Prior knowledge:
InterPro entries: Cro/C1-type_HTH, Lambda_DNA-bd_dom_sf. With 66 residues, this protein is an all-alpha fold.
Amino acid sequence: MNRIKEVLESKGIKQTWLAEKLGKSYNMVNSYVQNRRQPSLEDLYTIAEILEVSVKDLLIEKEGGK
């Protein structure tokens, strides 16, 4: 699970802008935002860089720690 949607909303950034910066289709970014798909680690790091946040800020820790 990821927090891309929350980070985008908190920064006032549209999914279309992120898709353009990431070089992915809107549909792909939307599937990340809706947690229907998870980005690859490489894409996750790129998204974090684009949004100027830590990769940890984009992740939801599982209950129970592991």
